[in-house]
Amino acid sequence: MPADKVEKYDLWRPVVRPERRDALDHLHQNVAVAWCQHLPDSLGSSATIAFEGSSFEPFLRLCDAENAVAEVAAFVLERAQVSGLLLISADLVRDFIDIRLGAPGERFGHETQGFTALETALAREVATSVLGHLNHAYGTTGLGELKVTRHANALRDLGAFDPEDYLVVFRYAVSGANIAGRIIVALGTTVVNAVVDSAAASKTVAHSPQLRSQIAMLPVETEVLLGSWTVPLQELLELRPGDTFPLPGRDEGVLMTGGGRLQSLEVEFAPQLIRLRAQRRFEHHEKD
Amino acid sequence: MKKTDFVLQLRVTVSAMLCRLKLPASVLAGLRENDVLEIAQPPDVAPMIELRVNGKLFARAAVFEREGCRFVRITELVSDYTEGGDQKWHLAKSETKPA
Predict the structure, then answer these.
(1) Which chain A residues are Cβ-neighbours of B86 within 8 angstroms?
(2) CB burial of residue A201 (10 Å; 0-12, 13-18, 19+)
């Protein structure tokens, strides 16, 4: 395990059986699929929401990690008597607003502090839709109805948890055309007593007719290469900042996935834009 | 031949990586000839690339074009490797049907 992944173990940290944790993870993976399928107006049609995993951490640590302006809502699950929160990162809120107002892509690199009244209203509207699907998922799992108790623009202003309260934190990465950011859902640790184990949950996922569309929405890491060539190490040793040299080819590029070439590209540099025009598809996902 | 001279004559593969994108599998599967992926760039800044040696980041460079040819200017030789982020993109589908 990498050194930066090793965490100090707190004696008062709640102990959770793996089956319960798996059940919660499955539940929140399905929430990501529901968001992708039912929020195209907010997310854009090609956006994906990837469930990145869950962790246990005190509220104070979450506040320290997420100390920027964001759309935040506190809620309670009535039947399970569990408090929770939803956080939508500021960059994602702004992308939602751009998509909603039909002006995507204008804020690259121009983040500002805080939201205007209109942005807050639109952010709350999006948060309500996101919470609606969360409510449906919790309802069908028997956790009860989700009731929003408060909205805020910072975690510290929420007042729903004490700093030392432990939370189960579920993180999501949103990416796609003109959209990128994070969604966080966190629940009080008493939720682990209110869920059923994962065996039943995993069976329903395996036989779900939605599996194919779920796989189609999975994000794939790709890289765009402008070219590659071989040189002796001596030439690399002599390179200095400011040195210039030509790249092989004129406007060619290659779209790479998993170390293999997928598609050749025509690469055009325009003002404030790079255009990648798809050309020939490589037959057998050739290795570079 | 000295040992260091021998090492310096070894050849390695340098790749020029323009950007990293996270695309849904469905978009990749449906990518047809002449579809265009657009990536927004900040104004008044030359496009940047990463030069990688056998996959490991070695230098960052700016791309510029002169007389129809593409050149790079080294801006930074990298000693500490840090992974860059994914870029935002927009897909414009081609009007023409594939053959």
Answers:
(1) 175, 180, 221
(2) buried
